[in-house]
Amino acid sequence: MPAPPCSCRNRHLPGLARGWRWFVRALAGPAAVIVGVSMAAPDLDRMQQLAHERYGAGAAEAVGAWRSMVADAGTLDELEKLQRVNTFLNRRTAFDDDIAIWKQKDYWATPLETLARRAGDCEDFSIAKYMSLRLLGVPAEKLRLIYVRAIVGAPGSGVSQAHMVLGYYPSPDAEPLVLDNLIGDIRTASRRPDLFPIFSFNSEGLWVSGASTSSADPTTRLSRWRSVLERMQQEGL
């Protein structure tokens, strides 16, 4: 059974988007806000050691299995890397709310934390997939963590909630492929009419409504992203 939708419905997000066609055109424009956090060379031995110290042998084994997946996928082409990473994390990670996992309303976990807990919400799935693909050499400019409104319930219900997915762009103006913890397969954006994009970001910037500069205050959102990037560096990523 697919994981239930992420319980992000109480977060304030910019107004509803106008669908994926609008969003692809927006991403072809200039970058908006540069985050300014560089990624250090990975030390995966340190990551696995910290997993053992903090969470025990089972967590270290989970990180080891993830490392093996990344190593095995190294020679694949990009589309095969997407599939390998998406399948691994969707199958090995249970969906749960931050309040249940971390006793916080909104916590963005590092891949180490997600692997160790074997659970996460939509942001945690997306972050772990993003970092796995970056380790596999997929350029940051091809990857965006995308906040969307996800339609829930019967078609035409009009009920939606906030959700995060990972988008892969073969070229800047291409239709993205969507990696989602709610479904097992990777689909083009046009095959996800249930998702309405709001804004996107990666380790290089934030894009909102196609503007050349941000039209929304990114401080709260990017402070969490900046925090998780810094914690990942401390953990070896």
Describe what you observe in this structure.
This protein is an alpha+beta fold and 237 residues long. It has a single domain, classed as C8orf32 fold (Roll), CATH 3.10.620.30. 39% of the residues lie in helices and 16% in strands. It has eight helices and eight strands. The protein has helices spanning 20-27, 44-55, 57-72, 78-92, 98-101, 111-117, 122-135, 219-235; strands at 94-95, 119-120, 143-152, 159-168, 177-179, 187-188, 195-201, 206-208. The two termini are 31 Å apart. Residues 1-5, 9-18, 28-36 and 210-219 have low confidence and may be disordered.
Strand percentage: 15-25%
pLDDT averaged residue by residue:
82
Count of domain modules: 1
Task: Give the neighbour order of strands across the main sheet.
Answer: 6-5-4-3-7-8
**Helix/strand-derived class?**
alpha+beta
CATH class categorisation: Alpha Beta
Main beta-sheet annotation: 6 strands, antiparallel
CATH topology name, in short, is C8orf32 fold
CATH architectural category:
Roll
Report the total helices.
Answer: 8
Separation, N- and C-terminal Cα atoms: 31 Å
Shape call: globular
The number of distinct β-strands equals 8
Protein name: Transglutaminase
InterPro entries: Papain-like_cys_pep_sf (IPR038765), Transglutaminase-like_Cys_pept (IPR010319)
Pfam family, one: Peptidase_C93
